[in-house]
Amino acid sequence: MLHFSLPDGQRVSVEVRSVLNAGFSGRSDDVVAAHIAELAALGIPAPNVTPCLYPVAPYLATQSGEVLVQHGRTSGEVEWALVITRDDVLLTVASDHTDRDLERHGVGWSKQVAPNVLSHQAWRFAEVAERMDAMTLTAWVRNGEWTEIQNGTCADLQPPKYWLDVMEANNLHVPGTVLMSGTLPMRRGVNQFADAWRGELSDPTTGRTLTAEYHVRRLPDPIA
């Protein structure tokens, strides 16, 4: 179950039944090429088509403040997320945490072994849809101190309507579905393999901000 607080004070609970991770979803060919290039530097092959959509297990959607990992080469990605409820569509901010070592063997595999961390706050998508492109997405990593690693506007990514149409066409637009937007390129020279991540979705029209933040903790080495 995910639980969201809305600006009017209402709380909405959603039982997650499906999680969809969009990938390589930049609206600009240059943005997509930049993201493919940064992943290629990590040894991750380019996809056959873009944008992509990777279904992952529903239990990977979480609002936990801690992500447990098995090695030091995992990292997050700031994204917006749509949450389909029984009578509404919510918009929130999230981080698609990913195993970068496993990503070299398969993007879908790497997304299946790490969680999607969502904010505890959300907005009704219908109330903000018209100004979505002006909203900003920003991420920071903590390596001793907080450093900005991603920044852009929602106009840099495929719009929510694109993914809503994809979900409708594939019978995926059902209550309990969480759709992650895909992400922005990371700043060069910033270590993404950090001990904490923070992502924000900001609405310059209202000054409101949604935040998702979590610590990354490495598990003990196996006894084997």
Automatic annotation (TrEMBL):
Pfam families: DUF2848. One of its GO terms (molecular function) is catalytic activity. InterPro entries: DUF2848, Fumarylacetoacetase_C_sf. It comes from the Bacteria. This is Uncharacterized protein DUF2848. It comes from Actinocrispum wychmicini. The lineage of its organism: Bacteria, Bacillati, Actinomycetota, Actinomycetes, Pseudonocardiales.
